[in-house]
Amino acid sequence: MVPPVQVSPLIKLTRYSALLLGMLYGKKRYDYLKPVAEEERRIESEEKKKREELERIAKELAEGIYIFFNISVPILCPKST
């Protein structure tokens, strides 16, 4: 087995400096992107509420048409071939 090699202090300093700079950059980038992601989540939740409301209304209308015409096959669902 070969004994470990003595690493230069300059190389150690460079490696730890790069590590520290990477951590600082990551924190800065995270702080920049966090509000953007929160805004996207807020918009998505609003769109989801609107979409669910429209689906609920469409379902009620479909049931209303079904009951109004008193038929066994809903009109809004054409047969697929």
From TrEMBL:
Top-level taxon of the source organism: Eukaryota
One GO molecular-function entry: proton transmembrane transporter activity
Subcellular localization(s) per the UniProt record: Mitochondrion inner membrane
One Pfam family cited in the UniProt record for this chain: ATP-synt_E
GO terms of biological process kind: proton motive force-driven ATP synthesis
Keywords annotated in UniProt: Acetylation, ATP synthesis, CF(0), Coiled coil, Hydrogen ion transport, Ion transport, Membrane, Mitochondrion, Mitochondrion inner membrane, Transport
GO cellular component terms, A-Z: mitochondrial inner membrane; proton-transporting ATP synthase complex
Coiled-coil parts of chain: 36-63
Function field: Subunit e, of the mitochondrial membrane ATP synthase complex (F(1)F(0) ATP synthase or Complex V) that produces ATP from ADP in the presence of a proton gradient across the membrane which is generated by electron transport complexes of the respiratory chain. ATP synthase complex consist of a soluble F(1) head domain - the catalytic core - and a membrane F(1) domain - the membrane proton channel. These two domains are linked by a central stalk rotating inside the F(1) region and a stationary peripheral stalk.
Family: Belongs to the ATPase e subunit family.
Assembly with partners or alone: Component of the ATP synthase complex composed at least of ATP5F1A/subunit alpha, ATP5F1B/subunit beta, ATP5MC1/subunit c (homooctomer), MT-ATP6/subunit a, MT-ATP8/subunit 8, ATP5ME/subunit e, ATP5MF/subunit f, ATP5MG/subunit g, ATP5MK/subunit k, ATP5MJ/subunit j, ATP5F1C/subunit gamma, ATP5F1D/subunit delta, ATP5F1E/subunit epsilon, ATP5PF/subunit F6, ATP5PB/subunit b, ATP5PD/subunit d, ATP5PO/subunit OSCP.
The protein's name: ATP synthase F(0) complex subunit e, mitochondrial
